[in-house]
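Annotated sample (chain length 111).
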Amino acid sequence: MQITIRGHHLTITPAIEEDIRLKFGQMIKHLDQVNSMQVKLSKDHQIDKHSKKGSANHIAEAIIRLPGIEMFAQASADDMYTSIKKLTDKLKRQLHKHREMQAIVPPLVNI
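Output written by the structure step:
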């Protein structure tokens, strides 16, 4: 499986890259059919006038490609590690739902 990690308005540090690979690796270790994953990390530079600080400005997005389906999730937080955690939680829920749907719907058989 291929994981592509990109940064927009920030550099990807080895610690962030390791955190992503660890969390996504654990998340999809039971799925053999994952073709590829793209993770985009960005930082929005808007500043709140009252607090003089950006709120929820670290954004993490991911696309997981399975045969016949693409899953997308986005999360934002004040810290990049928190946004990555929220992102993996969202994707875990999507993958769990996908697995349940695969178990319910029997595969088509050509006769």
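Annotation: The CA atoms of residues 9 and 86 lie 20 Å apart.
Annotation: The beta strands are 2-8, 36-43, 58-66, 69-77.
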